[in-house]
Amino acid sequence: MTCIEAEPLLNAYLDGELDAPSSVNIERHLADCRACQAQYGTLERLRDEIAAADLRYEPGPELERRIKAAFTPASAPRRRAAWWAPSLAAAAMAAAVLIALIVPARMSGPTAEREILDSHLRSLMANHLVDVPSSDRHTVKPWFQGKTSFSPPALDLTAQGFNLVGGRLEIVGGRPAAAVVYKRRDHVINLFIFEGGGSAAGLSQQEVDGYHLVRWTAGGLSYCAVSDLNAAELRAFAEEFRRH
C-alpha cells in the first residue's frame, strides 16, 4: 500500500469503519511510513480536541414538543418548513463556527507547537531521526524534491558548531513539511520547514514541556527549530541559519 492509497482511508480507519483486510493493510503501512504516522497522529489529536470540547447538545422539552407537532397529520407542510428552516440555519452556523475555531488552531498557537514538539519527540523515540542521513547539504536538499512543493534550505553550519546530520519528511498541520536535522554536541535540533506563515517575521521563542522552540518566517516559508538545547544556543542556531 502506498501513501496515495492510504491517506484517503485514514479517517475511516480511525473510526473503525474499514473491513478487516483494509485495516490490516493500513496497520502495515503505518508501521513503516513516518509521514502517514504523523498524519494519523494529527487526526487522533483533532478527534480528542473535539471530544474534549464537550459539544453534545441535549434538546429541551420545548424542542421535543415542536418536533412531535411538526409530524402530526394536522401540521401543514408550510408550517413544518417554518420551524425547520431556522433550525437548519442554526445548525449550519454552529458547524461553520466549529470549523473556524478548529482548523486555524492546527496551524498556529499552542496546537501547532504541540504538534511540532510531538514530531520532534517521535523522531527521537522511534530511532528514525532521518530518512536521508548525510552531512552534505547537496545531498539533503535535493532529496526533498518531489516530496514537498517547496525547496527547503539545508545549510552547512559546521563552522558555527551545528552539524548537519540529514533530513526527513514530516506532516505539519496536515501538510508535507521538511525536517532538517542538526546536532550540537549530543543535542538534536529538528528544524521544521513548511509553506505559509505570512510575511517575513523575526524570531519568537518559547518553552514547551522543558523543550525550546524558535520560530520565524521568511520567503513564504515558516521555520520552527526545536531542541532540548539551552535557549541561548538554540536562538544562536536560528540566527546563524537566517544569516546564511
Helix content: 40-55%
- The poorly predicted ranges are 99-108
CATH architecture descriptor name of the largest domain: 2-Layer Sandwich
Note the gap between the termini: 40 Å
What is shown here, in short?
The chain has nine helices and seven strands. The protein is of the alpha+beta class and 244 residues long. The protein folds into two domains: 1-105; 107-243, Phosphorylase Kinase, domain 1 (2-Layer Sandwich), CATH 3.30.200.100.
Task: Output the keywords.
244 residues; alpha+beta; Phosphorylase Kinase, domain 1; 2 domains
Structural write-up:
This protein has 2 domains: 1-105; 107-243, MucB/RseB, C-terminal domain (Phosphorylase Kinase, domain 1, 2-Layer Sandwich), CATH 3.30.200.100. It has helices spanning 3-6, 10-14, 20-32, 34-52, 61-70, 77-105, 109-125, 137-143, 231-243, and strands spanning 132-133, 163-172, 175-184, 187-195, 201-208, 211-218, 221-227. Strands 1-2-3-4-7-6-5 form a 7-stranded antiparallel sheet, with helices on both faces. The protein has 244 residues and is of the alpha+beta class. It is 48% helix and 22% strand. 23% of the residues are buried. It starts with a helix and ends with a helix.
Question: Secondary structure elements and their pairing?
Answer:
Elements lengths: L2 H4 L3 H5 L5 H13 L1 H19 L8 H10 L6 H29 L3 H17 L6 E2 L3 H7 L19 E10 L2 E10 L2 E9 L5 E8 L2 E8 L2 E7 L3 H13 L1
Antiparallel strand pairs: 1-2, 2-3, 3-4, 4-7, 5-6, 6-7
Helix pairs in contact: 3-4
